[in-house]
Design goal:
Helix content is about 45%, strand content about 15%. With about 325 residues, the protein is α/β, with parallel strands linked by helices. It has a seven-stranded parallel sheet. It has a two-stranded antiparallel sheet with strand order 1-2. Strand 3, helix 2 and strand 4 form a beta-alpha-beta unit.
């Protein structure tokens, strides 16, 4: 009888885990159709500050098991090569093919470099990630590396970068292209001379302490998908997760502060890119099958006016 009881307990535990994972997979199935016609998963796995071959393999193993199908990286993260190697082994492990995964990378424009240099950087990303195409490639920052943010040539070089990405998209190397950290001002300037290619995505800092309704409105009007980074605040502080209002909402919903912050954006159909290293947090960050009631959403929205501030770089200073 004791053995049967143990087996029953084990089976019940397995059912609890299975239900949790099934709910997570249901959340992960939600996508948004970009202006290019391709679908982007609303939840992606962020890899900023995750370095090293062994660690990248481990976290991607956890992420794919939890249901993540979108991986976000960048040239400056210095982990593209490790991601490419890990996926080569992990995709077959989970019976996945390249087309089952959405991969994003980004580059920062360089002072004094022409469009050929940008094409070379994209090709290096493709080689590092061991793929013939990328689902999304972004200009990481409206400013230019090696140039003062107030220098007028920032405009010239970011447009040169965009022209090169347009060419790589036409050639089939990039399915969708977009921008990151672009303000309404930067977007208006780009749309005035974008060679007929409207950015598919604008990836920006977005959380209850800092969000821009006017930017969201502009992007939706122009058919640009808004994607959030720093949803949990900065990696260097737990300030946002420890906020009294966030904690209270989490307690009332029986969720973690991280889940509340991620659901806050997800509920607005804004893309999110949570990053984590532990299996527990990786799975926690996709367990978002709940609703934040309107009253609590309002409380979270009011945090920007009361205590809000940015955690990341400020693109407003870039001409």
């Amino acid at each position: 009888m004791q053995k049967l009881h143990s087996l029953s307990s084990l089976f019940n535990s397995f059912r609890v885990v299975s239900r949790r994972l099934n709910r997570s997979f249901a959340t992960m199935d939600k996508t948004f159709k970009l202006n290019t016609g391709y679908n982007i998963p609303l939840i992606g796995f962020g890899t900023f500050q995750i370095h090293g071959q062994e660690l990248i393999y481990q976290v991607l193993d956890y992420a794919l098991r939890a249901g993540y199908r979108h991986i976000d990286t960048a040239v400056v993260y210095r982990n593209e090569e490790y991601i490419g190697s890990a996926l080569k082994t992990l995709l077959p492990k989970y019976n996945l093919k390249r087309e089952d995964i959405f991969i994003t990378s980004k580059l920062i424009s360089q002072a004094g470099k022409d469009e050929g240099f940008v094409e070379g950087m994209v090709r290096k990303s493709l080689a590092n990630l061991q793929t013939d195409y990328l689902d999304l490639y972004l200009i990481h920052w409206p400013g230019v590396s090696g140039m003062q943010v107030t220098h007028p040539d920032n405009v010239k070089y970011r447009m040169a970068t965009w022209n090169a990405l347009c060419k790589m998209q036409r050639e089939g190397h990039l399915r969708s292209i977009g921008v990151s950290n672009y303000t309404v001002k930067h977007l208006k300037e780009m749309l005035a001379d974008c060679k007929g290619v409207v950015p598919a995505v604008n990836q920006v800092e977005w959380h209850p302490y800092y969000y821009q309704p006017e930017l969201l409105e502009f992007c939706r009007k122009e058919g640009i998908f808004l994607q959030a980074y720093s949803s949990l605040g900065s990696s260097n502080t737990t300030e946002l997760r420890n906020d009294a209002t966030v904690q209270a909402v989490a307690t009332s919903l029986q969720k973690t502060p991280a889940q509340v912050l991620l659901r806050w954006a997800f509920q607005q159909e804004i893309g999110i890119l949570p990053k984590a290293r532990s299996r527990e947090h990786i799975e926690e960050n996709v367990a978002l099958e709940f609703e934040i009631p309107a009253k609590e959403m309002k409380q979270l929205n009011e945090l920007q006016a009361s205590v809000g501030h940015k955690f990341a770089w400020n693109p407003e200073t870039v001409v």
